[in-house]
Amino acid sequence: MTWFEDSLGYSLLELLLAMALGVTASAAAVPGYLTAVDDFRASGAARYISGRFQRARMEAVMRSATVGIQFTQTASGFSYAVYVDGNRNGVLTRDIQRGVDVQIVVAERLPDQFTGVEFGAVPGLPPVDPGGTAPGTDPIRLGSGNFASFSAMGTSSSGTVYIRGRRDAQYAVRIYGETGKTRMLKFERATGQWRPL
């Protein structure tokens, strides 16, 4: 065999070894990639919900009326819809049922826009605020009616909603009552702490 014949190709053993290395490297990269995609989706969902809160706040100021986002738990998770106060007593469940407080934005669900993302909390998640109440099994911490209400002055009710990804990416959107503004936070598993975004 000459040098020319030997350099034309690879042996079957060399090809199998190269393929095995490629498959091993790919298998090692896939979990990290899936975790990153999950985190990206959960982060996007948190930004979306924060934007929804700010949009409701703007609606309240523009309409000079209370605007509320009501979160409703169903068999398939939580949905949320936006309502405007029709009788100047705030957005109330009984007024929604009677048609007094009118829905102004179609009800939505997070998984419809962000695959694998839902309102939820990983087990043992600490509260966003030191000394506050941990979410436990209730990811919507907006009071008994599950409303985020915004006044014509731009103020709001206070509370937090927790957003969880398929691979346990964990975010929270906090509403501050005096200003009606929101803040997004991410839970860092390594430190066990919430980090503002």
What do you see in this structure?
With 197 residues, this protein is an alpha+beta fold. It has a single domain (49-196), classed as minor pseudopilin epsh domain (minor pseudopilin epsh fold), CATH 3.55.40.10. It has 4 helices and 10 strands, in the order ααββαβαβββββββ. The chain has helices at 3-6, 12-63, 93-98, 110-113, and strands at 67-74, 77-84, 102-108, 118-119, 140-141, 147-150, 159-164, 170-176, 181-188, 193-196. The strands form 2 sheets. Strands 4, 5, 7, 8, 9 and 10 form a 6-stranded antiparallel sheet that branches. The longest helix is centred in the first third of the chain and has 52 residues, at 12-63. The protein is elongated.
Give the C-alpha Rg. 24 Å
Topology-level CATH name: minor pseudopilin epsh fold
The end-to-end distance, rounded to whole angstroms, is 65 Å
Major β-sheet annotation = 6 strands, antiparallel
What is the helix/strand order? Answer: HHEEHEHEEEEEEE
- Structural class label: alpha+beta
Q: How much helical structure, as a percent, in the residues? A: 25-40%
CATH class: Alpha Beta
Mean pLDDT: 88
Domain module count: 1
- Strand composition percent: 25-35%
**Overall 3D form:** elongated
- Determine the number of helices (DSSP H or I, runs of at least 4 residues): 4
List the SSEs and their pairings.
Elements: H1 3-6, H2 12-63, E1 67-74, E2 77-84, H3 93-98, E3 102-108, H4 110-113, E4 118-119, E5 140-141, E6 147-150, E7 159-164, E8 170-176, E9 181-188, E10 193-196
Antiparallel strand pairs: 1-2, 1-6, 2-3, 4-7, 5-7, 7-8, 8-9, 9-10
